[in-house]
Amino acid sequence: AVRRVCRAEADGAAVGALGGTPVKKTSVLVVGATGTLGRQVVRKLLDDGYDVRCLVRPRPIPADFLRDWGASTVSADLYDPETIPATMVGVHTVIDCATCRPEEDMMGVDWKGKSALIQTAKAMGIQRYIFFSIVDCDRHEDVPLMQVKRRTEEYLEQVGMNHTTIRLCGFMQALIAQYAVPILDEQTVWGTSSASRVAYMDATDVAKMTSRVLQTPGTIGRTLTFAGPRAYNSDEIVKLCTALCGADDDPKVNEVPLLGLRALRGVTSFFAWTRSVADRLAFVDVMTDSEISADMEETYELLGMNKSEVATVESYLTEYFDTMLAKLKDLRAESKSTDFYI
Length: 342
Fold this sequence. Notes:
By secondary structure, the chain is of the alpha/beta class. Helix content is about 45%, strand content about 15%.
């Protein structure tokens, strides 16, 4: 049904772009399309009938999977603003899922690069801009990435584009590497002494809700926060993973004191070559919050959704462990069938 709606809009509701060139309302450029969120947004929009173009940086390993899904790709780099305009020709909506990698210059990508992206979108007559930010970034402007996200939100308001800002709490996908894999492998789990709770969301649900945002005119000019049904602390995640994998013993958990992380941040901030590390360690101040979450009732109503459509941490991790344990069982069976004795 969604696909038919999108096709109808594409056929009957062209919008004037730069120079009066008509563009389809279903033509979308996804920036950061190879990331955890970006790839899910691409896949969902393709399923819903959108014409999806993906901005990807020049890279040794091509993003072939995006083209295999049915998207087109264009090469550009936020570090090089001159490469951006050509990617937006014939595009109605830009969805900005990008953020810098750990080894990259945060200001170079998340501020200078994003500013150039927004300026270009405005100049090219882009009709809609979706920006992903971080929950409570306006309360933690002393944290560099939070400050950059907040500045970008404000800049979008200043340039006067039709935009929607979506603030996120955390992805369930991150729980796999941090908790599920080491517990399944009987390895040490690393965490912090913080008791903060996070309302994690599955990136596929964020993508689903983003598609609804595009179909809902009432979201233009709004800042929405997407949060999972319930917030969890690290102890609860560890206990849940332990129960789901059927472990006999509790895993070894090494907790790093928040005070120690603050001290490390202070040391690394003294040196230019470790300043990016210090900027990321600044998130320790965010971790002291009691709960990173949001009330979703108004958002569900706005998007025509309900809570049952969004995965819980329990259902997400259950599916992961069921899949992995089934694979391990098959591997053990295969290993036994190939054993032989002389």
